[in-house]
Amino acid sequence: MTLPISPRRAGELSRRSFGVLAAASVLAACSRGPQTADPGAPLRVLAINHVWTQAIGRYLPEFEERIGRRVVMRMLTADQLTSSFNVKLNASATDIDVMTIRPLQDQLMFARNGWIADLTDRVEGDTGFRWTDFQEAPRERSTVGGAAVSVPVVTERPALYYRKDLLEDFGGAPQTLDDMLDVALELERRDEGFFGYVGRGQRNGAVSQWSSFLYSFGGDFTHDGRSGIGTPEAIAAYQYYGRLLHEAGPPGVTNMSLEQAMPIFAQGKAAMYIDADAIYSNFLDEKISTVTDTVGFAPFPAGPAGSVPHNIPSWSLAINEFSLLRDDSWEFLRWASSPQMVARLQSEGIPGARQSVWDDPETLASFPAELAETMRVNAANGIGHDRPDVMQVGRARDIVGRPLVSGILGEDVPAVAADADAEFNDFLVRDNRQREF
Description:
Blueprint: H1 7-16, H2 21-32, E1 43-48, H3 51-58, H4 60-67, E2 71-76, H5 78-90, E3 98-101, H6 107-112, H7 120-125, H8 136-141, E4 143-144, E5 147-148, E6 151-156, E7 158-163, H9 164-167, H10 177-187, H11 207-216, E8 222-223, E9 226-227, H12 232-248, H13 258-266, E10 272-276, E11 295-298, E12 312-319, H14 326-336, H15 339-347, H16 355-358, H17 369-381, H18 393-408, H19 413-434
Parallel strand pairs: 1-2, 1-3
Antiparallel strand pairs: 3-12, 4-5, 6-12, 7-10, 7-11, 8-9
C-alpha cells in the first residue's frame, strides 16, 4: 500500500530528483521493455475539481462513443492533485493519460522532469486543430523551451469590481490608477468600517493580482533573466499598491488573500476591489452578497504604461509522458479544446482560450454585459503570466511579495525592494541552473 505524503514533502522529493530524473526515466522505460495498452483499458484523466472539469464530465459519453473507449475521470483538490502527480509521475506511472495542470505553477517543473509529452507536432501539424486560434498570451504560456507541452482550457483575467451607486458622482469606474487612488481616498471611512479599496495583501497570495499593477507601471518580474523588482517601475508599483491599501484599505490586510478580501466587498464594506474575473458570481449571489444590485465591472485601470493586465491560462490539459494511450489522449485534448466545445462551455460561463469563440457575442451572453466587455478588453490587452516564470514558484512569490507588504505597512519600500532584488537575483541564478534541459 502506498502511504500518502504531504504536498510539501512531495515537493522536496521532486526537487531532490532534478539532476537524475530524466536519465532514470529512460532507464526505467528500457527495463520495462515495450508496453502496449490493453484494448479494454479506459482512458484515465486525473483532473482538478473545477467547474470546467464538472462541465466537461457531462459530455464524456459523446467522446467515449467517438473513440470507442471508456473514460475514467478522477477529480481532486489542487493540493491532492499536486501530491498525486509528484508520487505517480516520479514513478513513471502509466495509469494516468490526460492531466489538468497549472501552466504557471506546475508546467515548467513537469517539463523539466520529463513528465509531460511534447505536443508540438500535434498542435502545429493538425490543421483542423487551429493552434493559432488560441489567444496569443495563453498559447505562449503553453510552451517550454519552444515546445508546446499543454493546451489551455480555462483563462482568467483581473476585473475591477466597483459600487455603481457610490462611484456615480465620480463619473463611474475609474479609467486610470491615479483616478482609482483618488476615489478610494475620497470614499474611505475607516473609522466607520468602510474602505475605499480592498485587495489581497498577503505576502505570497497578493503577488498574482499585484502583477497587473506592476505591468501597468511598465515593470515585470524579470528582465533578461535577472530580477526586475528593483527597477524604478517596480518600486513605483509597490509604492502605489502599498499606499492604496495602507490609506484606503481594511486593517489586517497583510493577512488577506482571496478568501478574506472577497467577502469584504461582497458585504458592501468597500467601494472597489480588483481580483480574478472568475469570482464574479459571488457578488451576484444574494445568499452571500449584499451588492447584487449595485456591483459594476470594469477593465483594469491604466497606469503610466497603459492598462496591462494578465490574461492567463489558469488550467490546461497535458498528456502524461508515460501514457500508453497517447493517440487517444490527444483526441481528448482535441475534443475538449475544440472550437465547438469551447463555445459550448463559454456559453455556460466558463471562459476559454480560443479567439474565434471570444469574437462570437453569443458565447458571452451568460455573463453580465458589462463583465463580458471587461473580460474582452482585458483579454486583448493582457499578457500570459501573473507570477515569476520559475521552477520554485512559491519561493519566488515570497521574495517578490516582501516589498509589497512593506508598502502596505508604510515602510521604506525602496530599501526593502533593493534587498529583495538582490535576494531574487541570487534565487534566479540557482533556479535557472535547475531549469536547464
